[in-house]
Write a structure and sequence with these properties.
The chain has 331 residues and is of the alpha/beta class. The chain has two domains: 136 residues, Arc Repressor Mutant, subunit A; 175 residues, Vaccinia Virus protein VP39 (Rossmann fold). It contains 14 helices and ten strands. The strands form two sheets. Strands 6-5-4-7-8-10-9 form a seven-stranded mixed beta sheet, with helices on both faces. A three-stranded antiparallel beta sheet has the order 1-3-2. α12 links the parallel β7 and β8. α4 packs across α7. The chain is elongated, with a radius of gyration of 25 Å.
Length: 331
């Protein structure tokens, strides 16, 4: 929309200021400035219900901040600052600088990461315009074989003679996958309900064993494990340090610990709603706990966000227990 029509649609100056007074609308505008998006795509990128996206789009459209394009039954939205007059462009630029530099920066970074995954998904979604040709084989493959076969095949890269523990196993999902590829799996949890669920899940896997115990006092012998997994567990612990120390104890020299958890975030509601003690972790914090326990950080990477997920971003960190040092060779 040209700038002169934009001003007419936007009403008075205070009305235009009001548009930028809501962080949700600002987050939405940032995304559609970067890419033309549909309601469903915005919902996945922002982790909102589609009804919330539609509710936020309405005042932006009425104020003339957005372009709307319809293709078939789908409407796409785009924000172009060139449609604004000079004063409004300056207002948008200053507002964007402020929220990007303050506490909201983390949320904006997560929005950007999820949006990239949403855009990437267009290329493999056979229902989308961009995937009608190249994405057909992906849909056929999913229909024939499902989504999980590749993950299980990758687990086959683990040495088949290893003993691996799923620490804080919950219902045993990870332990079940491991049990198909390694010699022995030990699943540990402290909650009786989780133990019972894991036992039911693993009862057809003779190589899997479920043990009840705390992460700070594992029911595992010194050096019994080749590898261990701590998946979405550490944020429930008041002090993760002792869990790292116990993992170090039960790993053999040269053993590996895999930690999967949330990137540091600001969703305070998780403390009361889900019992989270820590709002995620950053790399230096975890590296410090591990180093104090005698482990070495081998790799740390942010996992690709799933556009269907509603939680914070995740990371995977790999730690190694140093091999036993040998004494000087005797001549």
């Amino acid at each position: 929309m040209p700038a002169r029509r934009r001003s007419e649609a936007g009403g008075g100056w205070l009305d235009r200021l009001a548009v930028l007074s809501d962080l949700g609308r600002l987050r939405l505008l940032r995304l559609v400035e970067l890419e033309e998006l549909g309601v469903g795509e915005l919902a996945r990128a922002l982790q909102w219900p589609q009804s919330t996206v539609s509710r936020q789009l309405k005042p932006l459209l009425e104020a003339g901040w957005l372009r709307r394009r319809v293709e078939g039954t789908t409407a796409y939205y785009r924000f172009d600052p060139a449609d604004l007059d000079d004063a409004e462009q300056e207002l948008w630029r200053k507002t964007l600088e402020r929220i990007s530099a303050e506490d909201d920066a983390t949320a904006l970074e997560e929005d950007d990461r999820r949006m990239r995954e949403v855009i990437a998904a267009r290329r493999t979604d056979t229902r989308s315009y961009f995937g009608r040709i190249g994405g057909e084989w992906d849909a056929v493959r999913r229909d024939l074989f499902g989504d999980h076969f590749f993950d299980e095949a990758l687990l086959g890269l683990l040495p088949p003679n290893w003993t691996v523990a799923d620490l804080g196993c919950g219902t045993g999902e990870i332990a079940e996958r491991l049990a198909t590829v390694v010699r022995r799996v030990i699943a540990v949890d402290r909650e009786s309900a989780m133990i019972e669920a894991a036992r039911r899940r693993l009862e057809t896997h003779p190589t899997a064993e479920v043990r009840k115990g705390d992460l700070e006092d594992l029911p595992i012998e010194d050096g019994e494990l080749d590898a261990a997994v701590l998946s979405l567990v550490l944020h429930h612990l008041e002090t993760p340090g002792p869990a790292f120390a116990e993992a170090t104890r039960v790993l053999r020299p040269g053993g590996v610990l895999l930690v999967i958890d949330m990137i540091a975030h600001d969703r305070e509601g998780y403390r009361a709603a889900m019992g989270h003690v820590h709002l995620g972790f950053d790399e230096p914090t975890l590296a410090g706990w591990a180093e104090d326990s005698g482990l070495r950080l081998a790799a740390w990477r942010r996992l690709r966000p799933d556009p269907r997920g509603r939680g914070p971003g995740l990371f995977a960190a790999t730690y190694e227990k140093p091999p036993t040092r040998r004494g000087p060779r005797e001549g």
